[in-house]
Specification:
Elements lengths: L2 H9 L3 H11 L7 E3 L1 H11 L11 E5 L8 H13 L5 E5 L3 H5 L7 H5 L10 E4 L5 E4 L5 H4 L2 E3 L7 H11 L1 H4 L4 E3 L3
Parallel strand pairs: 2-3, 6-7
Antiparallel strand pairs: 1-2, 1-4, 4-5
């Protein structure tokens, strides 16, 4: 089974994920996705057979709009989402300005920005189009995410930060079937 289909099948098993996708679609932001821990944790929870989702620090919504780098749209989108689902800590970020925070060259798209995220398994995003089709964005591929591997992205240079993230988030304790690949 192709990996994208496998991920979509996992997503389709949870009505709350579908609700969240529709809610985010309603923001009508360009190149907009639910990403990072929301997708990663859900996949890892499913693989571990957890009936309840692992608590999220935040729900990352990413989009790309190089015509407006202000934070106003992000704040308004977070407020709108918070009104609909107040139990989430929503985080909306325009990837067109994240290069400033990351001290890198400007990104060209949401996918380009995601290449520079610390782990390959975290660089995965989902969205739903107007016809209720789910789309996947995974610039590092889906193998590591679906095979429960934690690997530093080749585009992310700070290995000590990568290792600190894993330890501080307690991933290997929460999901004991994960495999840390440090030397790749």
């Amino acid at each position: 089974m192709p990996l994208e289909k496998k991920l979509i099948d996992i997503i389709l098993t949870n009505e709350h994920v579908i609700e969240d996708l529709k809610l985010v679609r309603g923001l009508e932001l360009p190149d907009c996705w639910i990403a990072a821990g929301y997708v990663r944790n859900y996949v890892w929870d499913a693989a571990h057979g957890y009936k309840e989702r692992t608590l999220l620090n935040d729900v990352d919504i990413i989009y790309f709009d190089s015509s407006d780098l202000s934070v106003t749209i992000e704040v308004e989108a977070e407020k709108k989402l918070q009104e609909q689902k107040p139990h989430y800590n929503w985080s909306v970020k325009n990837q067109a300005r994240m290069h400033i925070r990351n001290e890198s060259l400007p990104y060209t798209s949401t996918m380009d920005a995601m290449r520079y995220w610390p782990e390959t398994a975290t660089a995965a995003a989902i969205c739903m189009d107007g016809d209720d089709h789910i789309h996947i964005l995974a610039p590092q591929g889906l193998e590591d995410l679906l095979e429960l591997k934690i690997r530093k992205s080749k585009f992310f240079k700070d290995k000590s930060y990568f290792l600190k993230r894993i330890k501080s988030k307690k991933w290997l304790e929460i999901w004991p079937m994960l495999q840390l690949l440090e030397d790749e």
